[in-house]
Design a protein that fits this description.
alpha+beta, 5-stranded mixed β-sheet, 17 helices
């Protein structure tokens, strides 16, 4: 199941049901002439153009990007681990091809946040950000167009114990799935915003060490998934998207500190939306190319800091990514290159007044988690609790002061239904060592019990109260127990019918 860039015969990836095209989505077929026009001035031989045209209409299977804190355990605990190469996606070593017969999206592993399912091409941006290394550890990072979270979650996992992520999604209807996917990482080192990039740049100028922009584009790589029409190759659509991308890139430049890094990516093949944008940043924003040595095999012929993967060569839908850096002006005092939060806060006014937690919410958090929000708020540098109507949030220790503004959304810890406060699903999914949940009562389920729980059923327990349900020490959600059974409180969107996987049968 290895993947090579120029291999003669590629092994097909048979995947879970999640990688099959939807019955009501039809792929779009292009001919070699249309493809040639779409990628001009890049020139490919006619036979390669024909293979590219055919590959652009073929569905490519997803891969599993394994969660960083569980990579070794997941890779080697499976009965089929010996059948997998150590690297199944050459440009991103934390990703694995889905084994034959393994229904990835209907597995307990998936429910436990063991991996994120995505097209291998989308991992090119994470490779350009070097999110599979410790390069981002301790950084302040922004994913400027973050939903649904395939790249944001990879960045969050790479930040270590001191970094922090702002996941911004301008389209408000896409914030909920983004929040859910971020919670599946088990981390609390993030905030979410839903700001236009220009507005965000006015709020946080010069703040971030790294900014990833997975820019809105014509989406030519999405043709194979039935998520785009032939209009994706029209010059007018490409030009419209290119203009929008430049506005977003200009805002990102304002958000970036001197010496910081921009990673730019698209899921299209048009040069006007890819290499031309790199040249525009160099020319208009005075950005400098920042090549990624590990991606040299995928370097674009038109940009030394830009990289492409192709559907006919690389077993994916295709993608583009580039990395550039913002220079520090020579002679500028060192302290001027660092952003200070205080002047901005003075300009914008005092911090948003925090709404105190309802007494019932405060009592729930104390009784279930063993943490007193009122005491935490009084302690400098501690977890910051905030109530937003029927949602209670808890930002991590050491979060930037600007998370207290009313335009940010924090990791959810409790919610109110009617007049009753309940612990939130995102709270249950936090790392088992998280200070907020380390004292919560937990019960361990076997394979059968875990499958029952994920389907919405009750679980047996002689304990009482709110309990975090675990499988192999991995949290799955909450139950409310009465001494006989635990009533299921798994959200509808997180429920599934667990498949009996071939790999599971082999290990029994």
């Amino acid at each position: 199941m290895s993947r090579s860039r120029k291999g003669s015969k590629k092994a097909s990836r048979k995947s879970s049901a999640s990688s099959k095209p939807s019955a009501n989505r039809k792929t779009v077929e292009l001919d070699a002439e249309q493809v040639s026009a779409a990628i001009a001035p890049i020139e490919l031989p006619k036979d390669e153009l024909e293979r590219l045209a055919a590959a652009m209409s073929q569905r490519h299977a997803n891969v599993m990007r394994v969660r960083r804190d569980r990579t070794d355990a997941f890779r080697f605990s499976r009965s089929d681990a010996g059948k997998l190469n150590s690297i199944d996606v050459p440009w991103y070593p934390l990703a694995l091809a889905i084994p034959d017969g393994f229904h990835a999206s209907r597995s307990v592993d998936f429910a436990a946040g063991e991996f994120y399912l995505q097209d291998a091409g989308s991992l090119l941006a994470l490779a350009a950000a070097e999110a599979h290394t410790d390069s981002l550890s301790g950084q302040l990072v922004c994913d400027l167009c973050a939903a649904p979270g395939g790249k944001a979650t990879g960045l969050l996992e790479a930040l270590g114990d001191d970094g922090f992520l702002l996941a911004n999604e301008p389209i408000r209807s896409r914030v909920a799935p983004l929040a859910y996917n971020l919670s599946r990482t088990g981390s609390d080192r993030y905030a979410i915003s839903s700001e236009d990039p220009d507005a965000l740049a006015e709020k946080l100028p010069g703040v971030f060490d790294t900014i990833l922009i997975d820019a809105p584009c014509s989406g030519q790589a999405l043709l194979s998934r039935g998520r785009q029409s032939k209009g994706a190759v029209n010059e007018s659509m490409v030009a419209t998207n290119a203009a929008r991308q430049q506005r977003i890139l200009a805002a990102a430049h304002k958000l970036l500190r001197p010496g910081g890094t921009i990673v730019y990516s698209t899921c299209t093949f048009a040069v006007a939306e890819n290499e031309d944008q790199i040249n525009w940043m160099i020319r208009e924003l005075e950005m400098q190319p920042f090549p990624v040595s590990t991606l040299s095999d995928y370097q674009s012929p038109l940009a030394d800091c830009g990289y492409r993967v192709w559907p006919h060569r690389d077993e994916c839908a295709g993608a583009f990514a580039a990395r550039l850096t913002k220079p520090i002006v020579v002679g500028e005092p060192e302290e001027a290159a660092e952003f200070s939060e205080a002047p901005w806060l003075l300009r914008r006014g005092v911090l948003q007044s925090e709404q105190p937690l309802d007494s019932d919410c405060d009592e729930l958090i104390q009784s279930v988690l063993g943490v007193s929000p009122s005491e935490a708020d009084a302690e400098e540098g501690s977890v910051f609790f905030r109530q937003r109507d029927w949602i209670a949030e808890a930002f991590c220790k050491g979060a930037p002061e600007w998370v207290k503004q009313d335009w940010t959304i924090g990791p959810e810890v409790a919610h109110r239904t009617g007049q009753t406060w309940k612990p939130s699903h995102a709270c249950a999914l936090r790392h088992t060592s998280d200070p907020l949940t380390v004292n919560a009562a937990r019960i361990e389920l076997n394979d059968t019990e875990a499958a029952t729980f994920l389907a919405g059923g009750t679980v047996p327990t002689d304990l009482r109260g709110w309990l975090i349900v675990q499988h192999q020490n991995r949290p799955l959600g909450w139950v409310k127990a009465d001494g006989r059974i635990g009533k299921n409180h798994l959200p509808t969107h997180a429920r599934m019918q667990v498949a009996k996987n071939v790999t599971q049968e082999q290990s029994t």
